[in-house]
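Renewal narrative, Specific Aim 1. Our central claim is that a sequence can be written position by position from structural information alone. The example that follows is taken directly from our test logs and has not been curated for this report. It begins with the structure tokens describing the chain, in the order in which they were read.
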């Protein structure tokens, strides 16, 4: 810590505050190498803004406070000129030396400003995806759906953690509205040491700055269920009404400052689709399937102001604030959850960012970033009373969120410096993050009755036990809904609890939490890095880096992450630009231990809060007092963090080749290997010893730690292996901007995260299997095509094969209170409990001689998503003349523009009306085993904004821009 403080303090004293801007500098010479003082340099943004500079007496030029993005760079002097150079500006300092030629021999080259290039620069890898304002038009306006679509474009991110989002260089915070986004970068410069997350799957969102002239727009989006198709998991069309409206304005505040302000209001009435198996209240007949729809109002405000201010020639200050408020009065309904399980959720978030870049000299730039983020979440149950969970059938009763709340405050401070020295670009710095969480949780304070399937006496049409020829009970497997039916039936007939259980009824488990609901915790982490992009030759760049990370709430402070990358332009050098680049890289990436895990361990330590679990309770539906529950032969669950916990990390290796093709097209083939060690998972350290627990005998089991109940420990003993082969194609011309990819993926692991427990606590056999990210094939296509009459077509197509799912027996086989035991492959097909499935004959009560299914044995169906947005733009207003340079050495071209634009769009989500199943039910004792009960993306209204009430959705957008 002393070393870190000594490293950080000098950086604080030499810098103001950093943002996502850059410095472009270089030297201007002629073909003989002589410097050219007084040369004029222009830096033209793709959207049209122009910066100019004049070379000094030493022939050097510099542009400061350049917003990251795509530009065209050009220089000229009397009788000298150069071809326009396409330039992709990244944060930091970029050195671009320019060489002028005699104007009479300069070649005439037409510039397609948006064309992708293959170069050996680290940040210009061809398998990266850059989405500009036009490309973003294909994506959803809803921020939550926008996240899902960006993750789909990014593809199956290497590693178990999935995609990582950075907003203007910061981690965390709320995704801004699409109106505020300038550019999105995916998978760029994957081994840069300044990033802690994997480069493959990293999504960087850059917001819009203010402009030097007044601009703005207003918009309204509208959709209702009349245009849409029925959800395939409901028997009637779900209600849906969407009204989104807002606008933005951008312009100068003064000679040195500009403002961008965005306001958005979302009003959505989304239909939640309930799909499960229930009972007729009067006759107790099983209703399969039971479907219903429920209208859920959803309201959200987003406010995003940003100020850019030039403090001096070499210093720019940027301030950005985001406010978001969301209110959903009936979250949690849909899928298996009946309307009684609804709860009101509201969330308010504030984000404050201060950014600045200070150019200390022509070779040294100091950058710093600061962000404060506060989110407040409150949940209140709409219905009180115990919950009823009939596994794989329905969830009823009261919501178990009680009155819960959570307030998180996060602070992030980064200080980065860039130093240019000869052929080296050095970048180093420190990131400090702090987080506090004040959490109030009354989860399951009302209690939950769980009904599971299993073996039971067979009943005839009169609900009497079936006897064989010897007068013995005939046993058969029953589903969870059948156990629930028998419970209610025999209760109505006045049977005792023991009789009901003998006949296959009665709740399988009862759980209840009690104690102090308040927990407060905090966490701090530090990351420091040093990187060097060394241009060994003009066609060969070697990138070296080292990153160090550490955090509180764990004892592992030895997290060093080396990074290595190389880019070799074959045949390049000596003024020739190569069309082929070979890239390779290696890096270690750590995954920090989340504060939420620490809070879980603090809450359920057995003292602050208690989790009581009773097997085969005989008091359904009455919930006894907590003192009575504690006096029963109950199990108490405690949760801990392993003292041997170390930080999970991924070792990633990448090799690929990129090629520049005709028609402004690039292609890249990349192989990625990811090897994860110390991946998080959980285990019950106090599970009953093997052979001592019988699921059919209440109170059985010998606990090794001498106390009754599980001790769930979060540990880092997991393993993850992944191999990916990716083909990327990018085409960007004046009228076409398309990005496509195909990924062949194979991912294996023995855990899918901290919530994964081994099925058998004393045997890890079968735990190593397909990871949750093991989607074998994925094809993505997105972009924009502009046709005649200024009509733009923006497709988004995602095709993928099915993900794996775990197959379980739907009951507690090992006395851990968990329902994650897996079935065996039956050897005795005449065994009454055996269930016939498409995966074979499965035994939900496996014997020691049977082979147990490995984790994630099942495989769901694939999905086809085809979205399309059609946009027509009409310009109007008084004519204006603007000049635009089109090629080197040529005269400027005058174009006629109009100040106002009317844009009318129609977007179609799931244009083909294809049914894409959601999560597959994996319990073999569920009547829905092997099927989904909701579409991909969720049932709707489950705690966040959702717009998927209908299968195919059409949405009309209108926008006026000035």
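The sequence written for that structure reads:
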């Amino acid at each position: 810590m002393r070393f870190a403080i000594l490293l950080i303090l000098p950086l604080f004293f030499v810098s103001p505050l950093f943002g996502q801007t850059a410095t472009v500098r270089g030297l201007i010479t002629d073909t003989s190498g002589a410097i050219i003082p007084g040369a004029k340099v222009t830096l033209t943004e793709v959207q049209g803004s122009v910066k100019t500079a004049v070379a000094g007496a030493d022939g050097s030029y510099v542009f400061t406070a350049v917003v990251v993005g795509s530009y065209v760079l050009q220089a000229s002097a009397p009788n000298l000129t150069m071809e326009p150079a396409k330039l992709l500006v990244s944060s930091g300092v970029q050195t671009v030396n320019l060489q002028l030629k005699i104007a009479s021999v300069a070649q005439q080259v037409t510039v397609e400003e948006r064309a992708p290039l293959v170069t050996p620069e680290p940040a210009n890898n061809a398998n990266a995806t850059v989405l500009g304002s036009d490309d973003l038009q294909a994506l959803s306006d809803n921020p939550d759906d926008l996240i899902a679509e960006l993750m789909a474009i990014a593809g199956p991110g290497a590693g178990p953690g999935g995609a990582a989002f950075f907003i203007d260089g910061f981690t965390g915070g709320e995704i801004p509205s699409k109106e505020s986004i300038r550019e999105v970068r995916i998978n760029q410069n994957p081994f840069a040491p300044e990033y802690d997350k994997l480069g493959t799957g990293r999504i960087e969102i850059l917001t819009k700055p203010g402009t030097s002239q007044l601009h703005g727009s207003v918009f309204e989006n509208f959709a209702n269920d009349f245009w849409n198709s029925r959800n395939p998991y409901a028997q009637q069309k779900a209600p849906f009404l969407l009204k989104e409206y807002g606008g933005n304005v951008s312009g100068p505040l003064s000679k040195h400052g500009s403002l961008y302000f965005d306001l958005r209001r979302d009003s959505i009435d989304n239909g939640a689709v309930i799909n499960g198996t229930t009972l007729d209240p009067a006759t107790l007949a099983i209703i399969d399937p039971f479907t219903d729809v429920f209208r859920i109002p959803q309201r959200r405000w987003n406010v995003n102001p940003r100020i850019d201010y030039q403090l001096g020639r070499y210093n720019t200050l940027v301030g950005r604030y985001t406010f978001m408020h969301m209110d959903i009065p009936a979250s949690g309904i849909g899928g298996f959850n009946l309307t009684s399980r609804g709860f009101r959720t509201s969330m308010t978030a504030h984000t404050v960012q201060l950014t600045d870049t200070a150019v200390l000299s022509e070779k040294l730039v100091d950058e710093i970033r600061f962000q404060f983020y506060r989110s407040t979440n409150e949940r209140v149950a709409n219905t009180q009373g115990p919950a009823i969970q009939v596994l794989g059938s329905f969830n009823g009763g009261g919501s178990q969120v009680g009155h819960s709340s959570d307030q998180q405050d996060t602070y992030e401070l980064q200080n980065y410096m860039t130093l240019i020295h000869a052929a080296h670009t050095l970048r180093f710095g420190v990131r400090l993050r702090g987080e506090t969480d004040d959490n109030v949780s009354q989860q399951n304070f009302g209690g939950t009755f769980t009904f599971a399937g299993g073996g039971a006496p067979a009943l005839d049409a009169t609900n009497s036990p079936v006897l064989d020829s010897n007068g013995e009970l005939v046993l058969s497997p029953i589903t969870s809904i059948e156990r629930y039916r028998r419970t209610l039936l025999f209760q109505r007939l006045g049977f005792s609890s023991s009789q009901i259980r003998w006949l296959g009824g009665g709740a399988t488990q009862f759980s209840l939490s009690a104690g102090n609901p308040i927990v407060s915790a905090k966490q701090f982490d530090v990351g420091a890095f040093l990187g060097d992009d060394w241009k060994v030759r003009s066609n060969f760049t070697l990138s070296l880096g080292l990153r160090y990370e550490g955090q509180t709430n764990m004892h592992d402070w030895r997290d060093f992450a080396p990074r290595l990358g190389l880019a070799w332009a074959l045949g390049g050098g000596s003024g020739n630009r190569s069309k082929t680049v070979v890239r390779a890289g290696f890096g270690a990436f750590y995954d920090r231990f989340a504060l939420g895990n620490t809070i879980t361990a603090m809450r359920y330590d057995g003292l602050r809060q208690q989790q009581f679990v009773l097997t085969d309770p005989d008091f359904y539906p009455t919930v006894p007092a907590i003192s009575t529950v504690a006096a029963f032969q109950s199990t108490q669950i405690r949760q801990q963090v392993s003292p041997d916990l170390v930080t999970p990390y991924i070792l990633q290796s990448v090799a690929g080749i990129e090629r520049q093709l005709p028609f402004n097209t690039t292609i890249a083939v990349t192989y990625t290997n990811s090897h994860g060690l110390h991946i998080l998972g959980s285990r019950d350290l106090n599970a009953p010893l093997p052979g001592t627990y019988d699921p059919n005998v209440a109170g059985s089991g010998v606990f090794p730690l001498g106390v009754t109940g599980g001790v769930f420990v979060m540990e880092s003993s997991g393993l993850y292996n992944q191999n990916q082969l990716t083909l990327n194609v990018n085409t960007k011309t004046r009228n076409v901007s398309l990005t496509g990819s195909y990924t062949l993926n194979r991912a294996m692991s023995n855990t899918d995260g901290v919530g994964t427990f081994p099925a058998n606590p004393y045997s890890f056999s079968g735990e190593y299997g397909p990871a949750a990210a093991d989607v074998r094939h994925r094809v993505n296509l997105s972009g924009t095509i502009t046709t005649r009459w200024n009509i733009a077509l923006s497709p988004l197509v995602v095709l993928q094969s099915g993900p794996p799912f775990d197959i379980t027996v739907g009951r507690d086989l090992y006395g851990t209170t968990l329902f994650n035991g897996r079935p065996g492959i039956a050897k005795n097909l005449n065994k009454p409990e055996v269930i016939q499935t498409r995966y074979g004959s499965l035994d939900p009560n496996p014997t020691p001689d049977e082979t147990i299914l490995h984790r994630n044995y099942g495989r769901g169906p694939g999905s086809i998503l085809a979205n399309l947005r059609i946009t027509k733009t009409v310009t109007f207003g008084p004519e204006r003349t603007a000049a635009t340079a089109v090629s080197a050495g040529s005269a400027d071209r005058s174009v006629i523009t109009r100040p106002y634009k009317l844009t009318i769009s129609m977007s179609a989500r799931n244009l083909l009306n294809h049914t894409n199943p959601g999560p597959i039910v994996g319990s073999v004792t569920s009547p829905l085993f092997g099927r989904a009960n909701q579409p991909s993306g969720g049932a709707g209204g489950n705690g966040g904004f959702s717009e998927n009430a209908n299968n195919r959705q059409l949405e009309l957008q209108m926008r006026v821009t000035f």
